[in-house]
Description:
Blueprint lengths: L16 E3 L7 H4 L2 H10 L2 E6 L4 H14 L6 E6 L11 H12 L1 H4 L1 E10 L7 H18 L3 E6 L2 H13 L8 E3 L6 H9 L3 E4 L10 H8 L5 E3 L21 H12 L3 H15 L3
Parallel strand pairs: 1-2, 2-3, 3-4, 4-5, 5-6, 6-7, 7-8
The chain binds zinc ion.
Zinc ion binds next to loops.
Amino acid sequence: xxxxxxxxxxxxxxKGVFDTHAHLYDARIFQDAExxxxxxxxxxxxxxxxxxxxxxxxRLAADYVQKWDGFNSIDLYCSVGVHPHEASSYTKDTxxxxxxxxxxxxxxxxxxxxEIGLDYYYDLSPRDVQREVFRKQLKLAYxxxxxxxxxxRDATQDxxxxxxxxxxxxxxLPTPGVxxxxxxxxxIAKILLAMGFYIGFDGPLTFKNNKKTPGVLExxxxxxxxxxxxxxxxxxxxxxxxxxxxxxxxLVVEKIxxxxxxxxxxxxxxxxxxxxRLFRI
Length: 281
Ligand SMILES: [Zn+2]
C-alpha cells in the first residue's frame, strides 16, 4: 500500500501530554522502546499508562513500567486485568494473581484494572463467560477502590445492564473508570457519564468516515475527556494505517480542540488534568 511510504507526522510544540492507553509491550513497538519513548518525549508526551489484557500482558505491562519508568524522565503507569477476548482464560489462579499484583500496586505503579468488559463483535470467549469475568473484575475494582478501563464492542445493552446493576447495588465507585476507545452513541455515553465515567478518545475520532464519535465528544463535558492512542492500533489521521505510538496522541488532542473550538494547548492541559484525576496520579 502506498501509505506505507509516507512519513509519519510528529506533532511539535506541546508539553505535559498524557497518553492514557498504549500497549507498549506489544511486539510491534516493544523492540524499539527507546526510540518510541524518546519520540513521545520530543512530542511533549511525558506520561503514559500501559494497559493489559490478560495475565501475561499484565506481567508484561508491569515489567515494562519497572524497566522504562523514569527513562529521560518519562512517567509510566500500568493496569492489570483480563480483556473480554481472554475471558475464557480467567481462573481462580488469575484472580489470585490479580489480587497479588494489586496488593503491590504502588510498587508496580498500577493505576487501574483493565481492560475489562464485553466484546460481542469478535466473540473470542463465550458471552456468558465474558459477563461473569466482567462482573468479577468490576467487584474487584470496587473492593480495592481502583478505577477500571472499560472495553465494550457490540455488547452495549448487556454492558449497560451489568453496570447499572452494579451501580444500583452501590458497587460502582463515584468515578468508576474510563470508557476506553469510545465507540458508543451519544445516548449511551450520557448514561455512562451519569454513572461517573470518563470517556477515552483516540484515533477513530480523527477518521473521516466516523460520524458517531464527534457526537459523543459534543455532549461530553470538558472534565470527563481523556485521550489515548491504543498503540500500536488505530493510528490517528494523518498517520492512519501506520503503527501507532504515544507520540501521535496529540493528533487526537488537536482534533478535540478543533471540534470544541479551543486552543490545542488548552485541550492538552485539560485532558492531562483529567487523566491524572481519573487515575489518581
Ligand atoms: Zn487497548
